[in-house]
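Long-time lurker, first post. I've been practising inverse folding by hand and with some scripts of my own, and I keep getting stuck on stretches where the C-alpha cells seem ambiguous. Below is the full C-alpha cell string for one chain I'm working on. Before anyone asks, I'm not after the true native sequence, just a reasonable design that respects the backbone. If someone could post their per-position residues I'd love to compare against what I wrote down in my notebook.
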C-alpha cells in the first residue's frame, strides 16, 4: 500500500511539474496569482536548497580528501591489516 501511495504521489508531482513548465510562461504573461505564489515560494526555497547542497558538497569533499590522505599515508603492518 505504501508503494502505491508513493508511486501515486510521484506521478502526480511529475505531472504537475510538466504541466507548470509548459503553462508557466503563459500564466506569467497573464499575471496569474497562482504563478506569482509559486514564484514567491521558489524564491524563498532556493537559497535554503542551495545552502544544503553546498554544505553536502563540502562534506563530501572533506570525506574524499580524508580517504585520499589515508590511502597515501604509509601504514605499518598492523594498519595495513586493518585497512583490508
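-- Answer (accepted) --
I ran through it position by position. Result:
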Amino acid at each position: 500500500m505504501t508503494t502505491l501511495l508513493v508511486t501515486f504521489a510521484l506521478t502526480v508531482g511529475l505531472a504537475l511539474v510538466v504541466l507548470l513548465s509548459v503553462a508557466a510562461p503563459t500564466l506569467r504573461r497573464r499575471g496569474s496569482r497562482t504563478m506569482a505564489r509559486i514564484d514567491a515560494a521558489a524564491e524563498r526555497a532556493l537559497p535554503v536548497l542551495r545552502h544544503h547542497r553546498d554544505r553536502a558538497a563540502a562534506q563530501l569533499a572533506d570525506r574524499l580528501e580524508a580517504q585520499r590522505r589515508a590511502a597515501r599515508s604509509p601504514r605499518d603492518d598492523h594498519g595495513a591489516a586493518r585497512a583490508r
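A couple of notes from the structure itself: The radius of gyration is 23 Å. The mean pLDDT is 88. Happy to go over any region you disagree with.
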